[in-house]
UniProtKB/TrEMBL annotation:
NCBIfam families: transpos_IS481. One of its GO terms (molecular function) is nucleic acid binding. Residues 130-249 form the Integrase catalytic domain. GO terms for biological process: DNA integration. It comes from the Bacteria. InterPro entries: DNA-bd_IS481-type, Homeodomain-like_sf, Integrase_cat-core, IS481-like_transpos, RNaseH-like_sf, RNaseH_sf. Residues 243-266 are annotated as: Disordered. This is Leucine-zipper of insertion element IS481. Pfam families: LZ_Tnp_IS481, rve.
Amino acid sequence: MSHANALLTPRGRLLLARCVVDQRWTLRRAAERFQVSAPTAARWAGRYRQHGAAGMHDRSGRPHRSPRRTPTCLERRIIKVRVTRRWGPARIGFLLGVHPSTVYRVLSRYGMARLTRLDRPTGRVIRRYEHAAPGDLVQVDVKKLGRIPDGGGWRVHGRQHRPNRHRGRGYSYLHTAIDDFSRLAYSELLTDERQETAAAFWTRANAYFASCGITVRRVLTDNGSCYRSRAFAAALDDIAHKRTRPYRPAGHQRQGRTLPPDPARGMGLRPFLRQQLRTGSGLPALAAPL
């Protein structure tokens, strides 16, 4: 297949063939002029004699016959197992007695989407989207994180070293707002996920986006009680509020990909983020693009 740096593009092949066929150049002279081998010049000249200018384009490399191709009945069984059970090539191959690479080629041949692109409960392809301008959609969510003491918890030192076996250290709640277009994120580590906390967080997040020149027009949340409350609706004011479908987390995963778990600390925060304790005047923000 020709490319930008090819010696013979379709136009160059046509010039070569015309020099040999129409102008009676020798193959050696034409090959030297176009910097190709004599057999290459002979091939394009012969194709020009047979097909004319239309024969100068690349042909498909697919063979006319494939006697060792996977039988159609086996291909149908592979597709049926993939659609009904949503298995990968390894499990399908083990069930049907076929090599996984053969199963993968069959799935690719029929345009079957990868399992990572499917919604497992329904089997439908997940539509990935991105809005056209900053502020068109801001996704808001909460991530619940267990508090781990300095030096590690019971997984490091054992359960017998816990000061109180019946009461843990509690949880911290990472509230995050992410702009769908620019991926600009605003996060605060708070002590709960009540409606008043979520409403106050959105007020500060909206002010932060406004300071960055982003006017929020739509907010997407899950169906948590704090986001269905009147306090959060009042904080949104005239901003449109959309919610994800129940039990469909695949449509609301910007926060999970933006804040991956940190294996060094066993929690979902970056190491440089520290919890801000509640004070009488409110909570200081941890606003920074992540």
